[in-house]
């Protein structure tokens, strides 16, 4: 804390000069936006303490349009962006001109090391080239049987828990076990055994339990002000922050240290066999090792990069899918008739295929409502609701829908200065009425079935964003999620298995789930925050 305070003391005067200098360049003054309650905190405390992630942004978008000026800490303007064309420009067109903010890439380094989420510019390009072979459709198809086996082990475990016809289970406890086993099998050819031993102490799961709730949720005032300065502190100094006595940094680092230790052991076991066995091992680790050794010297990942990559995939490929599945099951529990639709689709497909064998990826893709429900859950509950970027040069951002400026003028493009901070509002885009129609805020999987309202679908096609189905949930462009297809296949396999075996209901007495803002969107029961992350659903076996 002492060193942190010192840094703050030195930084404040320097920073004030910087802000005054920047102010001189003018910038977003002509844009409208929500009232900024405080110079020091801007709108940040409102955002980080809102009851349900996104509610504030949704209200602002209704009021001020799809692009607006909001307040960051220390009097700095942030551009909140939900406009399709602007998003396309920043994420897809802009390529590497809109890097992540230094604050972001530093805390990513604390959490996952120097892996793909952290890397930027040419380092990112090099890492992504090496990782791409792991995520081709052809490679991912080979993981499906492993996902299906994990899903059927979950079925077994749930059936053991059910007495007298039904039981209420905390699915937030079970799903990460499933997804950890799945990423273990697929990525590392290593059996974590998290499902088989639900009460056992799995070191990784224990470290991950409530990770974001304990570290990132409801930051202190000091933390907010301190972190906002990181974007203006030289990288050489930032590197030392990893050792500051700070709750979030400590929690993040403890995951990284543990994940790298697990990875190091696996690399030792794998490297020889991956190279020896003539390219037969299909797990991510073996493909990564092969892909890496195929590069020339300077292009290769060094050992720390390989371990960081593993820590990155372990976290990126597990927590994300578990929470997304949790929200999906929650929505389906609220709509039992839709579960029935999914069951009927599965039954019809079985008849068509004419066997009880597990489905292939192409067969899973052919289930219309099942896939629509997965997409709708991704749309309505993006677990990464906002991502931050910074402009690396002066630029002009085009808009789909003009906004009205402070002086009443129509604005159809926004000029920004180098260093402009940008909030990419994934959750707002996913609920724009201009893209999704008047019921954008409601759960309605059918929207992915029908060719909806001509105008809005034409516009969506024109400026489609994201990696698929016009969803921004996996971000987009060169920094878009590399694991989206991996996630889709795993979610399809799990959903089909669960719907085939169980009926889900909201527990008696109702369930008031709150979407908490912890960087990742986490579910808790309103009024029961002390019980931590949870999603209790009533589960019975399908007759
Ligand atoms: C439903 C599941 C998932 C969601 C919603 C999701 C979401 C995202 C988002 C929003 C980003 C961009 C982050 C940013 O720009 O700040 C991202 C990047 C990334 N995701 Fe995912 N993800 C999911 C599953 C996965 C899986 C299964 C893996 C790996 C097996 C994975 C690995 C990554 C990696 C490595 C990146 C960094 C990509 C890059 O910068 O080149 N994700 N993800
Ligand atoms: C971190 O963020 C800055 C943007 O402020 C960027 O220029 C830098 O390259 C980023 N990445 C790394 C790995 O340092
Ligand atoms: C679930 O079990 C409880 C008693 O354990 C019973 O009251 C309730 O009706 C059951 N619900 C369903 C849907 O079977
Ligand atoms: C639900 O599961 C999560 C994740 O394992 C756990 O942290 C939490 O304590 C559980 N909540 C309850 C009420 O069982
Ligand atoms: C599609 O984009 C073009 C230019 O990029 C624009 O002129 C046209 O109006 C757009 N159409 C719709 C329906 O938004």
UniProtKB/TrEMBL annotation:
It is found in: Membrane. It comes from the Eukaryota. Belongs to the cytochrome P450 family. It comes from Hohenbuehelia grisea. Transmembrane segments: none annotated. This is Cytochrome P450. Keywords: Heme, Iron, Membrane, Metal-binding, Monooxygenase, Oxidoreductase, Transmembrane, Transmembrane helix. The lineage of its organism: Eukaryota, Fungi, Dikarya, Basidiomycota, Agaricomycotina. Its cofactor is heme. Pathway: Secondary metabolite biosynthesis; terpenoid biosynthesis. InterPro entries: Cyt_P450, Cyt_P450_E_grp-I, Cyt_P450_sf, Cytochrome_P450_monoxygenase. Pfam families: p450.
């Amino acid at each position: 804390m002492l060193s942190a305070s010192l840094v703050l003391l030195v930084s404040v005067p320097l920073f004030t000069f910087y802000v005054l200098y920047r102010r001189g360049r003018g910038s977003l003054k002509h844009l409208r936006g929500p009232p900024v309650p405080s110079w020091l905190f801007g709108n940040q405390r409102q955002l980080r303490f809102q009851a349900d992630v996104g509610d504030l942004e949704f209200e602002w978008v209704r009021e001020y349009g799809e692009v607006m000026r909001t307040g960051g800490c220390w009097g700095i303007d942030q551009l909140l962006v939900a406009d399709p064309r602007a998003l396309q420009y920043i994420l897809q067109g802009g390529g590497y001109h809109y890097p992540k903010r230094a604050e972001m890439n530093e805390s990513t380094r604390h959490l996952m090391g120097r892996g793909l989420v952290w890397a930027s510019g040419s380092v990112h390009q090099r890492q992504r080239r090496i990782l791409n072979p792991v995520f081709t459709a052809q490679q991912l198809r080979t993981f499906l049987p492993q996902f299906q086996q994990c899903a059927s082990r979950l079925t077994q475990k749930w059936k053991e828990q059910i007495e007298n016809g039904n039981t209420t289970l905390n699915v937030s406890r079970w799903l990460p076990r499933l997804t950890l086993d799945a990423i273990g099998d697929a990525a590392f050819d290593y059996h974590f055994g998290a499902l088989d031993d639900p009460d056992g102490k799995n070191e990784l799961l224990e470290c991950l339990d409530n990770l974001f709730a304990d570290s990132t949720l409801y930051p202190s005032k000091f933390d907010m002000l301190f972190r906002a300065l990181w974007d203006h502190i030289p990288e050489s100094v930032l590197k030392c922050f990893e050792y500051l006595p700070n709750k979030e940094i400590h929690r993040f680092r403890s995951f990284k240290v543990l994940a790298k230790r697990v990875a190091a052991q696996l690399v030792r076991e794998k490297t020889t066999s991956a190279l020896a066995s003539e390219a037969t091992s299909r797990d991510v680790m073996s493909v990564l090792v092969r892909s890496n050794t195929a590069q020339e010297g300077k292009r290769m990942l060094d050992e720390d990069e390989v371990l960081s990559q593993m820590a990155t995939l372990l976290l990126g490929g597990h927590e994300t899918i578990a929470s997304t599945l949790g929200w999906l099951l929650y929505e389906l529990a609220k709509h039992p008739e839709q579960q029935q639709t999914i069951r009927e689709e599965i039954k019809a497909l079985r008849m068509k295929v004419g066997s009880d064998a597990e489905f292939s990826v192409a067969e899973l893709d052919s289930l219309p409502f099942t896939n629509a429900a997965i997409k709708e859950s991704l749309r309505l509950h993006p677990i990464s609701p906002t991502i931050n970027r910074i402009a690396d040069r002066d630029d002009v951002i085009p808009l789909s829908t003009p906004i009205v400026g402070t002086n009443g003028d129509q604005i159809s493009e926004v000029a920004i200065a180098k260093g402009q901070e940008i909030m990419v509002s994934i959750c707002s885009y996913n609920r724009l009425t201009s893209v999704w129609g008047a019921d954008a805020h409601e759960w309605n999987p059918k929207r992915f079935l029908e060719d909806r309202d001509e105008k809005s679908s034409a516009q969506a096609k024109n400026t489609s964003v994201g990696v698929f189905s016009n969803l921004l949930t996996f971000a987009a462009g060169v920094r878009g999620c590399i694991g989206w297809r991996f996630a889709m296949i795993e979610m399809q396999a799990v959903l089909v298995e669960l719907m085939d075996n169980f009926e889900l209901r909201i527990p008696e007495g109702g369930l008031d789930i709150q979407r908490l803002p912890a960087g990742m969107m986490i579910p808790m029961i309103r009024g029961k925050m002390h019980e931590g992350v949870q999603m209790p659903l009533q589960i019975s076996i399908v007759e």
